[in-house]
Write a structure and sequence with these properties.
Radius of gyration: 20 Å
Structural class: alpha/beta
Number of helices: 12
Distance between the termini: 19 Å
Largest sheet: 10 strands, mixed
Shape: globular
Strand content: 15-25%
Number of strands: 14
Bound molecules: 3-isopropylmalic acid, magnesium ion
Order of helices and strands: EHEHHEHEHEEEHEHEHEHEEHHEEH
Length: 369
C-alpha cells in the first residue's frame, strides 16, 4: 500500500464538528478496506480556536495544515464571536488558511440530485438535471486588496476602503484550472466580471480571452457581466457548464447557484493551490453551508455536503476517482431510499438525524463496493 495520506480535520464551529465527523467515517471505511491508508489529525479553527487559544487559527495548526495532503474543514463562526474586532473574527481563520496555503481556485459544484428536484424553490423544469461548476478565485481581489481599512476624516466623518485588484498571473492561473476542468466536462466556459465598470474586469476579460486563444481553442468561451449572470442563474441555470469568476462575485454567485439545488446542506467545495514539482496541489475541502448555530449540537445537521466534500478530496487530492464516485452514488441511493435530514425533508420521506444519515451512507457504500 502507498504511504499514508495526511489529512487534517478542522471541524470548527456550530454544526462543523458533527458533519465533519460523519465524513471522517468514510476515510476510516476506506482505510479499513485497505484501499488507502490515512493519517488523520484534528485541530481547531474559528471560534473554537478563539475560545482555546485566543486566535482563529494558531501558527501550530497552520504548520500542520501546510504539511497535510488535504484539509477537511467544517464551518466557522457564530453569534458568540460576532462582536469581536474584525481581525479576530472566526472567519479570519478560514481566510488565513486560504491565503497562506495559496488556495487560489475554489471549485463549487451545483448539481441537483433527482431525488431532491422538488426541494428547489424553482420550477422542476428549470433545475432538473442541473450540473454546473463555479470556479471562484479565492486569494485575491477585494478580499485581500490593499489599501483597506476605516479611517477618520478631518470633518469627523469616516471612510471605509477596500481595493479590488488582480494581476495577470492571478487571473491566468485560475482561468487555466477552469479551462482544464471545462475540458473534462462539456467544454463550455463562461467568464464573469464587470468589465463595463471596472478596470480589473477589463483585464480579467482580456487575459481569459488570451489564454483561450493560445491554449484552449477547443473550449467554447463566453463572457458575461456579473449582474446578468445572477439573473441568468435563476432564469435558465442549465445554460451554464463551468463559470470562472473573481473572489467577490464568486462568493455571491455560488450562493445563488447553490440555492438552485434546493439545499445548501448538499453542496461540497474544494479549494486548490498550484501543483508542486510532483504535481501535488495543496487543498482544503469544505461544505458550502455555514455553521448553522441554531441547530448546532442537536444531531440535526445534514452531513451530506461534508461527505461529498470528502468525495472531492478522494478525487482531487488522492486520485481515487472510483472511490469518489462510490461515495457519490452511496449518497444518491441513501436519498433514493427516502432518508432526509430536516433541511431537505419532504412529504412522505423518513426524517433522520445527522448520525443516522452517516450510518446510511456507510451502509450504502458497503453495498456498492
Ligand atoms: C464562503 C463564505 C466566506 C467567504 C466567509 C465565511 C468568510 O461566505 O466561503 O463563501 O466570504 O468567502
Ligand atoms: Mg460565501
Amino acid at each position: 500500500m502507498p504511504s499514508n495520506k495526511k489529512v487534517l480535520l478542522l471541524p470548527g464551529d456550530g454544526i462543523g464538528p458533527e458533519v465533519t465527523h460523519q465524513a471522517a467515517r468514510i476515510l476510516e471505511y476506506f482505510d479499513k478496506k485497505r484501499i488507502a491508508s490515512f493519517d488523520v489529525k484534528e485541530g481547531l479553527v474559528g471560534g473554537a480556536a478563539i475560545d482555546k487559544d485566543s486566535t482563529p487559527v494558531t501558527d501550530a495548526t497552520m504548520r500542520i495544515a501546510m504539511e497535510s495532503d488535504a484539509v477537511l474543514l467544517g464551518a466557522v463562526g457564530g453569534p458568540k464571536w460576532d462582536s469581536l474586532p474584525f481581525s479576530q473574527k472566526p472567519e479570519r481563520g478560514l481566510l488565513r488558511l486560504r491565503k497562506d496555503m495559496e488556495l487560489f481556485a475554489n471549485l463549487r459544484p451545483a448539481f441537483v440530485f433527482d431525488a431532491l428536484v422538488g426541494a428547489s424553490t424553482l420550477k422542476r423544469e428549470v433545475v432538473e438535471g442541473l450540473d454546473m461548476l463555479i470556479i471562484r478565485e479565492l486569494t485575491g481581489g477585494v478580499y485581500f486588496g490593499e489599501p483597506r481599512g476605516i479611517t477618520n476624516l478631518p470633518d469627523g466623518s469616516r471612510k471605509g476602503v477596500n481595493t479590488q485588484v488582480y494581476t495577470t498571473a492571478e487571473i491566468v492561473r485560475v482561468a487555466r484550472i477552469a479551462f482544464e476542468l471545462a475540458r473534462k466536462r462539456k467544454r463550455r466556459l463562461c467568464s464573469v466580471e464587470k468589465a463595463n465598470v471596472m478596470e480589473s474586469g477589463v483585464l480579467w476579460r482580456e487575459e481569459v480571452q488570451k489564454l483561450h486563444d493560445s491554449e484552449f481553442k477547443d473550449v467554447e468561451l463566453s463572457h458575461m457581466y456579473a449582474d446578468n449572470c445572477a439573473m441568468q442563474l435563476v432564469r435558465n441555470p442549465k445554460q451554464f457548464d463551468v463559470i470562472v469568476t473573481d473572489n467577490l462575485f464568486g462568493d455571491i454567485l455560488s450562493d445563488c447557484a447553490a440555492m438552485l439545488t434546493g439545499s445548501l446542506g448538499m453542496l461540497p467545495s474544494a479549494s486548490l493551490g498550484a501543483p508542486d514539482k510532483s504535481g501535488v496541489r495543496k487543498a482544503l475541502y469544505e461544505p458550502v453551508h455555514g455553521s448553522a448555530p441554531d441547530i448546532a449540537g442537536k444531531n440535526l445537521a445534514n452531513p451530506l455536503a461534508s461527505i461529498l466534500s470528502l468525495a472531492m478530496m478522494l478525487r482531487y487530492s488522492f486520485d481515487l476517482d472510483a472511490e469518489a464516485k462510490l461515495v457519490e452514488r452511496a449518497v444518491e441511493s441513501t436519498l433514493g431510499q427516502g432518508l432526509r435530514t430536516g433541511d431537505i425533508m419532504q412529504a412522505s420521506m423518513k426524517r433522520v438525524a445527522t448520525i443516522e444519515m452517516g450510518d446510511a451512507v456507510l451502509r450504502e457504500l458497503a453495498k456498492l463496493a
